[in-house]
Amino acid sequence: MKKQTITVIAASALTTIVVIIGFILLMPIIGPRYLHPLMMGSQPVAANLDTSTSVLSDSGLFRVSYSSDPILPPLNQIHTWTIHIETVDGKPVEQAVITVNGGMPQHGHGLPTSPEVTQDLGNGDYRVEGMKFQMPGWWEVRFNIAANGQSDNVTFNFILE
Amino acid sequence: MKRVYLIVGGVILAVAAIAFWVQDRQTSWSEADTAMLRSLWIGSLPALPPDPSNAFADNPEAAKFGQKLFFDTRFSSNGEVSCATCHLPELMFTDGLPLANGVGTTTRKTMSIVGTAYSPWLFWDGRKDSQWAQALGPMENPVEHGGTRVQYVHLIDEVYRADYETIFGTLPDFSDRTRFPNIAGPVDDSSARAAWEAMTPEDRDAVTQVYVNMGKVIAAYERLIVPGNSRFDKYVEALLSDDKEAMQSALTNDEVAGLRLFVGRAECTKCHNGPLFTNNDFHNTGVPAANGLPADDGRASGVQKVINDEFNCLSQWSDAGDTDCAELRFVTSTGEQLEAAFKPPTLRNVAETGPYMHAGQYATLAEVLQHYNHPPLAPIGHSELEPLGLTATELAQLEAFLHTLSGPLNVPPELLQAPR
């Protein structure tokens, strides 16, 4: 092996060492989180989180869907949802008694407001007033639905950005 | 010789790589972070929301009249206190004191009025639900303005009759001092209260109507007090137009590092979000009681006060229709989350508006950040905070970032002083 080749290899190795040492020396200043997004420290949301706007209730009694006005639930703005409830075979569920709650599972707190179903719009549609979300992140909204002598719970998930 | 060249070259390359990487960190953001920065940007502040409870909110004459009342010290028990005594325009409408000082001393720090038109709840505990209802609270508070509504109505009659009648029509005749005593109102002072209770319900309502209108014109003025551009906003604007050079001239590396912490690991945007850097909700952050003051239960009492407030959105004095008052109709009125919960103040101009927390417990931003980094146990209820584990360098970067939120108000200069 030529002497010159050995010199080039040695210099390259030295350069690599300098770069690595530089990074190590800079670590306390820059923090590790910039080196990889996984080290950023944000709490993970389950990758398979179901964020559909139409879901089956826990015991499979009702199929429930929601729409928000505005279409994407806004941050810090009180607004209205409409939920639609039908039986699994597609018949609208009327005259249901519905309660609302929810919160942020990662933060352990509930909704900032106390929303209520204020109107039975007919055809299985119900107006939900007083919806509000005051933080970006993963929200759960749960409805307890009592109709036709039966009761069931349904949970919607969404990520507020 | 050649070996030396190679080594020097390698070192130069390494330094260049690090420098490029550092610069990239100053200007490159993920899509999610960019969305977050856009939401904090002043350009995301919507037009002033309507105030259905105040039919005069957008009346320019009302705003001019309101500005006069805001700066007039005659509306107090000692002739020395106006709204501007605690809300000084030159201090971003705060007073630089731990506890507000009117004719006496209160138990809370003066909140800024900047941007309060966007807030559904006013005061640290949200005990008022409109700017006009808020403005009337201190007027009859014994340690703030210390006066009474009948006293104020006589002043309107003597000094501001023309201003009043331009907006509201004929002012009722309050000249009969047996029906309308000099000092009377539903206040703590027993003789003023007795005089108020001796009045007929009709006379009391006539007085209260004028008093309410005072609040509504003050609110029409206060609505116009909104924040303006800061260096942070220039940075986001440059980011959104992909102008790396402008980004670098807007914020330093340390400030950008602080911004990354603010939207990331420090979790500030849980509560300080949106273009006003507040969600206007209520949170228990375990701030210790101020020296010499009893522990303060914050929203837990505040929500009961607003529900029972004679001037709330659903009251006879509000101009709102039944369906307008959604915040009040669907308010959460019970639950542990309200215990010692306080409203996060706007962080715009935060460096200019110390001391900090609801009773001015912390003199500096460094102390505030220390609190969030090592949260103490809450004196009442449960603190929502968890230790952040930030280093001293990171705390300094966060503080540097908070200073970039300073900027002049987006308000014509003639509104920032007593009217000529």
Layout of strands and helices, then pairs:
The complex is a heterodimer of chains A (161) and B (420).
Chain A: H1 3-30, E1 54-56, E2 62-69, E3 79-87, E4 97-104, E5 109-110, E6 116-122, E7 125-131, E8 137-147, E9 150-160
Antiparallel strand pairs in A: 1-2, 2-3, 3-7, 4-5, 4-8, 6-7, 8-9
Chain B: H1 2-27, H2 31-40, H3 60-70, H4 83-86, H5 131-139, H6 149-159, H7 161-168, H8 190-198, H9 201-222, H10 231-240, H11 244-250, H12 253-263, H13 299-307, H14 326-329, H15 365-373, H16 392-403
Can you describe this structure in just a few lines?
The complex is a heterodimer of chains A (161) and B (420). With 161 residues, chain A is of the alpha+beta class.
Can you describe this structure?
The complex is a heterodimer of chains A (161) and B (420). Helix content of chain A is 17%, strand content 41%. Chain A has 161 residues and is of the alpha+beta class. Chain A folds into two domains: 37 residues; 107 residues, Domain of unknown function DUF4426 (Immunoglobulin-like). In chain A, a hairpin with a 4-residue loop joins strand 4 and strand 5. Chain A is elongated and about 90 Å long. Chain B has 420 residues and is mainly α. Chain B has two domains: 152 residues, Cytochrome c-like domain (Cytochrome Bc1 Complex, Chain D, domain 2); 166 residues, Cytochrome Bc1 Complex, Chain D, domain 2 (Orthogonal Bundle), CATH 1.10.760. In chain B, helix 2 packs across helix 10 and helix 5 packs across helix 9. The relative contact order of chain B is 0.15. The model of chain B has no long low-confidence stretch (mean pLDDT 96). At the A-B interface, helix 1 and strand 5 of A face helix 1, helix 2 and helix 14 of B.
